[in-house]
Amino acid sequence: MAANLRAKLPESDSLLVNDRNVETLEKFTKEISVVSTAASKPNGVEACSSAREVAEKSDVLITCLPEPKSVTSAYGNIIPRALPSTPSGEERLFIDCSTIDPQTSRTIAEAIHSTQSGRFVDAPMSGGVVGARAASLTFMVGASTKTGGLVERVKPILGLMGARVMHLGAQGAGLAAKLANNYLLAVSNIATAEAMTLGTRLGLDPKVLSELINSSSGQCWSSKINNPVPGVVKGAPAERDYEGGFGVSLMAKDLRLAIAAAKNSETKLELASETARIYSAVDDVEAGKDFSVVYKWLNRDNGNATNGKRL
Fold this sequence. Notes:
The protein is mainly alpha-helical. It contains 13 helices and eight strands. Helix 8 crosses helix 11. The chain starts with a helix and ends in a 13-residue tail after the last helix. About 5% of the residues have low confidence.
């Protein structure tokens, strides 16, 4: 995402970055190939020591963190003290692309707005690592329309990193949509893994089965883009022993958030309990792997199938 931002921003603009993982931050700044016009900022990127430093020097701050407590901590570092005016003099804009619970997001938004630190929108995304690299993500925006121009200001910024930017409603609506989407994704990923296992154990070639599913009513993102069977989709995490991609622990986290939101809204999710149990069990033995590794886990007692056949 950050690489796409730097590549598409004017050379005169600076990209300021911070990551709690120092090695990741150093690696990113070295890999960026765009040459900056400012000699003090190699490659048009400036590494900052904290989220507060990024906010102080920026017109727009984009955050993307793994869980609610990380987001709360980052903004707790940013907003307790008054921020200086933005470099352009325009009102500071905070865009949070994290997947967290709507209530935490609303609390942060209220803190920013009450301290007049700027404007805040939630904009979680869908599309995974593949979408992030290809700038084909879908962003789900929750932003007020009571004061003019906020949504219009946000869309072109997110458009630098994605193919589609949808305004879902007031602040928090983006997260509501993301939790509903990821609940469906959690269930369909397991169903895809089970269907692929069933078909191959009935004698079907996994590639042929995948082609059939993806041209029929069973098709979904997990079958078409992120198929869990090695050798079916080129470039999918299954091709790399499930390395990279969307971590199973993050899916388990998103599922917990969706279940909590369902409880708060008195919505009954019949498949939630069993789905959560499966991801928790998978995370115990396959931590760090892409969530499609559920296919490998489902086959653990059936010959440890990793390519659609018993080994």
